[in-house]
Known about the structure:
Helix content: 10-25%
CATH topology: Double-stranded beta-helix
Strand content: 15-25%
Shape: globular
Distance between the termini: 15 Å
CATH class: Alpha Beta
Strand order of the largest sheet: 3-13-5-15-4
CATH superfamily: Clavaminate synthase-like
Largest sheet: 5 strands, antiparallel
Structural class: alpha+beta
Number of helices: 7
Low-confidence stretches: none
Radius of gyration: 18 Å
Amino acid sequence: MTLTYKQLHPSFVGEPSPIDLRSANAGDLAEVRRGMDHYGVLVFRGQAFSDDEQLAFAERFDGTLHAKTSTAVLEKNRFGNEALSDISNVGKDGQLLAADDRRRMSSLANRLWHTDASFVDPAGRYSMLSARVIPPVHANTEFADMRGAYDALDDEMKAVVDELSVHHSIAYSREVLGFEFAPGEKEMLKGAVHPLVRRFPETGRRSLYLASHAQSIVGWPVPEARLLLRDLMEHATQPRFVYSHQWRLGDFVIWDNRATMHRATPFDDKKYRRELRRTTTLDIARPAAAH
Length: 291
């Protein structure tokens, strides 16, 4: 099958022609990977995934799944598999989470610009989010084009950022919002160091690799590092680099964490139910069976 794409933003984000990803063959998956290299974010409509089907597709498409999630230190996954992230506002009993529920309080950090699994090594490559229950109000997810943001830097700033490495900690992004970890929890979230600029040998492009998890720049004084990271975040999230996705039931969105940031936008999560399922792959070589 040859996919065609409707471009949803001037510089990135594509909506492929109809395809059932559950039955996609090796040739189809290769087409989707080429689309990911070009667009960075792909929006698939009408994908009726079950949990098991989503897990199987993610492994077949891109290999090893990320399972060291931040919520795992708070409570066990209600699906019994940490590789299937529960991006929802309901508990194990199926009821809406209370306003002061610790899982809800931790998930508020999803409203910060971030990059999935930047706090582990190897970091995340592709994230795949499946819309299972959608509220009757806007609850968009915004994406920022980090390749476009890098391209728009002047040559002097590119020369600076090309040489830097950054420590990412998911505990840091949550503590910024006042979340308090219980004894022993924070020690399980030590973080990881990654280059501030990612390079893509397939396309020759470069991308800023930022997130609200970005705590410090290796070898820099903390005040100077945080000022530069703040300035880069503000630069990368200008409206010209941002696409806002309005969810429909059955949407399945895949994005490249090396080339984008994203954030959830607020809605009345104490009134309206929303359930999404996320799988994220690690940035390591794909097994032969995934090609």
